[in-house]
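Let's practice the habit of predicting before peeking. Look at the sequence and jot down your guess about where helices and strands might fall. Then scroll down.
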Amino acid sequence: MTRCLALAVLALVPVGAQDRGDRPDLGLVARIKTEAFDNSQVMDTLGYLTDVYGPRLTASPEFRQAADWVVKRLEGYGLENVHLEKWGPFGRSWSLKQASLEMLEPRYAALDEAPLAWSAPTGGPVTGEPLLTPVGNGRQSQDPNKQEADWNQYMAAWKGKLKGKIIMLAPAREVRPAAQPLFARYTDKELGDLGVAPIPVAKLADLKDLKFPDDPAEEGRFLQRLPGWVRDQFADERRKLTTKRAKFWRDEGVLAVLNTSDNSRDGLVFAQAAGSYDAKDELAPATFVVSHEQYNRILRLMEKKIPVELRLNLQAEVSTSNVDSVNVTGEIPGSAKKDEVVMIGAHLDSWHSATGATDNAAGSAVMIEVMRILKALNVKLDRTVRIALWSGEEQGLLGSKAYVKEHFGDPETMKLSGAHARLSGYFNVDNGSGKIRGVYLQGNDAMRPIFEQWLAPFRDQGVSTVTIRNTGGTDHLSFDSVGLPGFQFIQDPLEYETVTHHSDMDTLDHVQAADLMQVAAVVASVVYDAANRAEMLPRKALPKPHPRSSPAGQTGSN
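Done guessing? Here is the structure:
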C-alpha cells in the first residue's frame, strides 16, 4: 500500500521536476522545434552577417563592424554581459578595396581572380609579362621538410631572373568532369561507416616519427587527424618559410605572383593568404589566384611563344603595426548553478573573396538563433549559457585559443584556472549549412549514452550517428586541448568542400535555410539539457603539456 501511494504521489509531480536522468523533456523539445521552425530568424541574421557585413577577415574593419552588429543583436534578444573581448595583438589589419587582373595581349580578357590576403598593394595598375617558375613537381606537399627543400631549390634556381616579372607558380591543371555530384547528403551507409571506431594506432610521441602519405591528395585529411600541437608546430615552420619566400620575391623585384588552387574547377577560385600577417614579417608581392581555365590559357599561349601581357591592380588598406582582435561573448545567466557554464560557439571571421556564408556565418547565425530561442521560450536554466563568436579561426583557431588560455588553462603548461572546473562543456558548429546528422564524441566515450538520449527526439530529422571519432579544424579543439569537453556536430556535407569552402562562391545563395532551422533546434535542445543536467558533463583524462617551439604565425597559402 505504501509503495502504491508513493507511486501515485510521484505521478502527480510535473515531469520537469522528476529526476529524468539524461532523458530529454519532450514537451520542451516540442516547444523548441516550434520556435525554431515557425518563428525562425536565422536567415535574417545570416543575411546581415553576409550581404551587409561580409566578408569578415580577422582584425579588418569589416570584422569589427560585424562584431558590433552582433553585440546589438544579442542585446536586443535580452542577453546579459554582451561585449567584445579583446585578445592579441593579432597582426596586421588588411582590408581589400579594389582588385583586378586582365590580359591585354594577345587579346583582351578580364580574368577570374581573387587576391590573397596580406599581400602588398600595387600602388596602382601595373603591367608585365608572365613567367612560369614552378616549385618542386608543381604540387606543394604539406610536409614542412619537403616544402623547405623545394623552396630552397626554387630560390637557388631563380635568383637574379625575376625582376619585373609576374611569376606563375603552378604548371597547367587538368580540368576534369566531375565524377561525383558536387552537392550531397550523407547516406545511411556513410553514417554507419562514420559511426565505426577508427583502427587504433600508436599515439605520436615525436615529430620525427611522423610520415606523410605518398599521395598529396591525402595530405589534407591526414593533417586533420593529427593532434593540435603537431599542427601548431607545422604552422610555425610554414610561417618561417612563407616569410623567407616573400622576402626573396621582394628582394628580386617580382612584380606580382599568380597561382591556381589545386581544387579549383568550373571557374571557382579559392583564396586564403599570401603569407604572414605579422607586421614584423615582409608582405608578399601582390598575389592572385586564377581559375584553372584562364590560368591554363595563359600557359598555353606562353608554350606557343606568343607574347602575353597582363595588367593587375590591388588596392588594400594595410596597417603598419600589429593590432588586437576581438571575440564576441554574451550570456543567459543561470539560476541554481549560475557559476557553472555551458558554452556554445562558432567562428565569425571569414576569408575575403566572398561573404563567408557557409564558413562560417551559418554557424554564427545558428548560435545567435539558439540564444534567441532560449530567451523567447523563457526556459529555466540552472547553469549559465554563454555564446562566443570567435575571430582568428582561419589563421589557426587563434581567438578561441586566446580565450581558453585566458579563462581556463594553458595547453603548453597545463596550468589550469578555477573556471576550468566550472565549465561543463562547449558545443561548436562549423561545417557549412548542412543539417545535423549526429555528433563527434572526440574520444569521450562517457558522453555516448548522454548524446544518444539527447538526440533521440531528432531521429526522424536524420540525427542518428554518435561516433567516438575525432574531427579537427575548428574551435572545439581549443577546449579539448586543456581537457574540457568540446564537441563539433556531424553535418551533411552539401557542397561545402566541393564548392563553397574558402571560395568566391561562399555566399548566401548556397545556404540551405531549412537545414539551419534544424541545426538551431538540435543545438538549443542539447544546450537546455546540458544546462539543466544534474551533473557536469563527464571528462576525459587531462592531456599532457605540449610546449611550442616558436610563436604561431600565418600558414594559409594557395
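How did you do? The CA atoms of residues 55 and 352 lie 5 Å apart.
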